[in-house]
Amino acid sequence: MRHHVLRASALALSAALVGLAAAPASAATVVARASASAAVVTVAGTPTDSGTYSVTNDGSSQSATGTNRPAATALAGQSLISGGVLAQDAVTQTSGRSAACAGLAGQGSTVASVGDGQCLTPGGTLALSAGTLDLSHLQIVQSTMLQGLDQQVQTGLQPALQPVLGALQTGLQTGLRRLGDPGLFVGLGAVESRCTAAPGSADGSATLADVGAYVQVGDQRVDLLSLPAHPAPNTKITTGLGDVAVAVENALRSQLSTALAGSLGPLSAAVDRAAVLDNVLANIGSQLAPLDANVLSGTLNQQVRPTGGSIEVTALSLDVLPAAAAFGPQPLSVQLGRSTCGPSDRISPVARTKPGTAPKAPAKKKQVLPRRVTAGLANADSPHGGHGPLVLTLGGLLVLAAGAGALDFRRHLGRGRRG
Amino acid sequence: MAAVAESGTVADARNAGLRTAALVVVLGLVAAWFLLPRSAAGPAYGDMDAGVPVRLKITALHLNAAVVPVQVSDDAVLDPPSDYREVGWWTGSAKPGAGSGQTVLTGHTVHTGGGSMDHVGRLRPGQKVDVVTRRGTMRYAVRQVRVFSTEAVARRAAGLFGQQGGDGRLVLISCTDWNGASYDSNVVVFGDPLGVPLERAG
Fold it and tell me: From the candidates B6, B15, B20, B64, which should be mutated to test the interface with A, based on the most A CB atoms within 10 A?
């Protein structure tokens, strides 16, 4: 009996030792890993996301965490994305390969299985509302109305200034009411990123279908950005809302023109209405000047390679900058379609033979935009002015005519004397 | 009596000489009338493959200038051609006829006159601007003319010169606001692409 107990104890101890020896090895070996997250929206520093679907492979089977069927309602606590189709999926193979795909598309889009092709087929267009512009603080400044006008006109208009100012203020408010609050939108058909990895290598790309940023001013759409369908890795974008300011000025022009004409009364004939209107609109334009600053910035096909065998791709990373806060929209950031692939704990033949030769993303030289145009000269030094050819032609014609006349004069003179 | 006859001969010869000179002038003007180009407008427009611009023509301003390529310097300054009668096409911008980006042309305003873009600030919405390329002539309609301080141009660089997006619009830029010593502002003309004029009607 005692021998049986000893044999059973020895067997159990051996099994435990074998188990302990094997356990660290199986926990440390992940032959493939990948993850995908459809959308992350950060408002006032608080992120909301669709969750992350992560998969790992230990060489014999795949295990997963999170969901690969996220619902748009998962993005609670934010108003940027409401509706649309979210996609996030990832797979691994025991060979060490991994693939992931993530993105967002409009209603009616379909989600395909993750692989080498696209995982989202565009349907309708989705409009993401990034905020509305508050123009209620625009006002008519009396001191700027008559700038540059003839002194006589200024003196004549002075008694009627208060009624005119009042009418213009009313016209401005009416115009602004008709405009409503211009909305800042990102419109998209589909945005997605994809990646694949194998031991020692990783690759990724992004596709954007019908993606652009725009502002809706009344019934007019002012396009700010139209994004390329297949952007190069780490393509930077940035824009201000200067064109929106122009659209607002143009929209207010007719309203203010009517208000001005109606308030001048008998002075109407004596006052250069266009000059007053230009002054008023120029002043409104200066109040809209902050819109010239960069209020939207972002990166397309953002790629990060932590190691040679892994990659993180974000299809569209967009920030509404603090400069926009002057007109209402709060700073926010959104990342659409984030996929990660690799690394594999298996060592690739390439990595074994050539350490430190991880492939790098091709560097794209950033285009230098002009910030200053020096197109003015005090005077023209060259003797060949703009009318040079004309002067030369006319001069030649006159010389030719004078020569022909002189020859004819001599011919007739000689003939007369001989006669 | 002989003196009177001599005087009559000289007068006849002078009249004949003047007649000949006048005839040469008239013939020269008639030839110029037929040879000089005249403006025409056509209601229909076609597409054009993007091409490098070689000439800028604005009938409303009597502007007809050669276009040469120019580059932006490393410190982000765009300088028109040194020949102030020419116009520069920024090679980093779209070629006329391209469906995206924007075509940026710049020319000098010369305070004493003679610059290729002395009068672009006088353009009005709707007026036409032709950019001649080797692939055809792209016509644009002026949408708006704006004056920006040099600081505003720097702030708006992405909108004025950026090539992301856009529909191939034309951007003409020169200087304005002479302060007695230099220019304080830039005048910018925006033009919407119409296409290649397909017919010439009087």
Answer: B20
Q: Is A377 on the interface with B (CB under 8 A)?
A: yes
For A293-341, write each residue's pLDDT tens digit: 777 888 899 999 888 889 999 999 988 877 777 777 777 788 999 999 9
A184 backbone dihedrals φ, ψ, rounded to 5°: -100, 120
Tell me what ipTM this predicted complex has: 0.73
CB contact under 8 A, B164 and A226: yes
Stretch among B9-13, B125-129, B152-156, B168-172 having the lowest mean pLDDT: B9-13
How do residues A178-210 score in pLDDT, each as one tens digit? 888 888 888 888 899 999 998 888 999 999 988
d(CA B113, CA B115): 6
The closest of A264, A265, A261, A195 to A233, measured between CA atoms, is A195
The mean predicted confidence, pLDDT, of chain B is: 83
CA distances from A395 to A81, A360, A403, B25, B197 (A): 73, 68, 12, 11, 36
Closest CA to B90 of B68, B120, B74, B112: B68
Residue of B nearest to A387 (CA): B114
End-to-end CA distance of chain B: 62
Please check whether residue A129 is in contact with residue A224, taking contact to mean a CB–CB distance below 8 angstroms. no
Q: Which residues of A touch B76 (CB under 8 A)?
A: 368-372
Average pLDDT of chain A, as a whole number: 77
| Mean pLDDT, residues A92-102 taken together | 88
- Kindly report whether the global pTM for this prediction surpasses the value 0.90: no
* Per-window interface: B 43-72 vs A, CB < 8 A: 72
Q: Which residues pair with A110 in a beta bridge?
A: A121
Touching check for A225 and chain B: CB below 8 Å? yes
Q: Do A376 and B106 touch (CB under 8 A)?
A: no
Position B66 pLDDT exceeds 80: yes
Residue A269 has φ and ψ, to the nearest 5°, of -75, -25
Name which of A225, A191, A206 is nearest B165 in CA terms: A225
Q: Under 8 Å CB-to-CB from A386, ≥6 apart: which residues?
A: B85, B113, B114, B115
What local confidence, expressed as pLDDT, does residue A294 receive? 74
Taking CB atoms and an 8 Å cut-off, how many pairs form between chains A and B?
A: 185
Burial class (CB in 10 A: 0-12, 13-18, 19+), A113: exposed
Return residues 279-338 of A near B (CB < 8 Å).
289, 292-294
CB A328 within 8 A of CB A320: no
Instruction: Tell which B residues from 98 to 127 touch A, by Cβ distance under 8 Å.
Output: 100, 104, 106-115, 117
Dist CA A68 CA A71 (whole Å): 10
Helices vs strands, H then E, count in chain A: 8, 20
Q: Which of A129-143, A260-274, B68-82, B155-169 has the lowest mean pLDDT?
A: A260-274
Residue in chain A lying closest to B23 (CA): A401
Percent of chain A with pLDDT over 90: 11
Q: How near does any CA of chain A get to the CA of B169, in Å?
A: 13
B25 interfacial to chain A (CB closer than 8 Å) = yes
